[in-house]
Automatic annotation (TrEMBL):
GO BP annotation list: response to stress
Upper taxonomic lineage: Eukaryota, Viridiplantae, Streptophyta, Embryophyta, Tracheophyta
The protein's name: aldehyde oxygenase (deformylating)
UniProt xrefs under Pfam families: CER1-like_C, FA_hydroxylase
Fatty acid hydroxylase domain: residues covered: 136-272
Residue stretches in coiled coil: none
Domain of life, source organism: Eukaryota
Cellular component terms (Gene Ontology): endoplasmic reticulum membrane
Originating species: Urochloa decumbens
Transmembrane annotation, as ranges: 99-116, 128-145, 182-212, 331-352
Catalytic activity: a long-chain fatty aldehyde + 2 NADPH + O2 + H(+) = a long-chain alkane + formate + 2 NADP(+) + H2O
InterPro entries assigned to the protein according to its UniProt record, in alphabetical order: CER1-like_C, Fatty_acid_hydroxylase, Sterol_Desaturase_Related
Amino acid sequence: MATRPGPLTEWPWQRLGNFKYVVMAPVVVHGARRVSAGGWGEIDLAFALVLPSLLLRMIHNQIWISAARYQTARSKHRIVDRGIEFEQVDRERGWDDQIILNGLLFYVGYLLIPSARHLPAWRTDGAVATALLHAGPVEFLYYWFHRALHHHFLYSRYHSHHHSSIVTEPITSVIHPFAEHIVYYVLFAIPMLSTIYIGNASVLGFVVYIAYIDFMNNMGHCNFELVPKWMFQVFPPLKYLMYTPSFHSLHHTQFRTNYSLFMPFYDYIYNTMDKSSDQLYESSLKGTEETPDLVHLTHMTNLQSAYHLRIGFASIASRPSDSSMWYMWTLWPLAWLSMVFAWIYGSSAFVVERIKLKKLKMQTWAVPRYNFQYGLNWERESINDLIEKAILDADARGVKVLSLGLLNQAKQLNGGGELFRQKHPKLRVRLVDGSGLATAVVLKSIPQDAKQVFLHAGPSKIACATAFALCEKGVKVIMNPKKEYDMLKSQIADSRASYLKHSGNQMPQIWLVDNIDDKEQKMAPQGTTFIPISQFPIKKIRKDCTYLSTPAMKIPETMQNIHSCENWLPRKVMSAWRIAGILHALEGWTMHECGDALIDAEKAWSAAIRHGFVPLNKA
């Protein structure tokens, strides 16, 4: 929102939320009536392309969003090396508003302008006229309108909304108040209305012109330099006819330079070109190689997680993955397609995120596999190969710490990472499974006055460490499965063994759970607090019980570029396993924490608090 919002700031359908597409109903109803009355032959090309062109624009924009986020996470050609926050993602959530407006204006134009109906598919002379009219009147008028928007009166009421994003993403290009977009569409209508009046307009001419506007808008705001230098060397005048991402980036950082729409020649004519434009282009194109200090290796969970990744859908990734949204079912075909594509062509982990904490540089890499694939015996070898490849890649690049997230550290898969440590004893990168901090978070989530807890978990590393710590404190740990009880009993010191009990009748109101089904949950007494000790949340079926989060902590305010949620966790919250890798790098710990090795829980907890991480579940 602008600093002092002016009239017509809000979009007319803003209060409709995700149901805003209902405003396109007249187009659908009109088309249905024409088809029912006279068949498909009654639908001419101009009308038929109104809705498909909107869908193509959305796909075009989403490709740019995903490509830009992927490149800014891994590429050395970043222009502005700063982070994006949730506030910007929320502000830019309505990037499709202008597409809806475009569709409505096309429909109204179709109804009101008889000569716009039954246009030919293509006219070359019309395309040439459109290009000339854009380079002339449109670019000229936009340049001066844009300069006017930077006057404090209009800037504070309208244009400051767009400039709230210093670090731009492709969709930043269309984030403007409604009033601004009305003016922009008046400008862009000049070539289209003129060709209709002249008589050389065409349907594809309009579609290509809008696609050109989208392409240039997205490119100019993508925050990584991609225009090759040879283009300007082959055709030197191109520098006056096409801007670059670095050129427009300066407008967002300097504000008073580089006003042009897509063609910078008016900035040259009126002496408003930033003097550092060429230098920034050269330096961004050359780039600087960057080696992260830490890599967190995760993977996709369910089918929906493909578009919950940061490089997927920005608005979905900015919410916990268990958030229910009515339109998610429409994405299932895309989810299945991405899963099949990843299974067939996913030969290595890929970068999905880049964040900073103080001077520590971190990346998140994802193994292109899903939860269900980790449970397939015949897939384990290939998954371990992918994990091993990522570890060796990180080691070769000089990464200091690699934390194993989710099932990448499964004991039945690779012994909690021990397989790779033994196979490559000279690894310089430290492997971390995060069990020490996860244990500490679980222990701190238990009320201090608790006298007994019920441990419903298999013989996992964290379950054992938690049971040992509780017994040492004199807290009674009750277990039901005899097999798991006997395994733990044999490992506890005789002086504390009496605190570990096997019972099917005693049911305390504090349950430490790993994997629990609905039937087992119903056995818990009323008022029970369920405390997960695994990385995956448990299903909440009891309204009379309390469910705590999986082991996690709130991140420090100084952590940069956090604008997506980690799976099902809330905003600005990280899993203990991921934080453990960060602490390993910050503290300079030299040991591997994998296999049976475990960082002391109190040591890990103290380091987390010292570096600004905040408890999420307070005892």
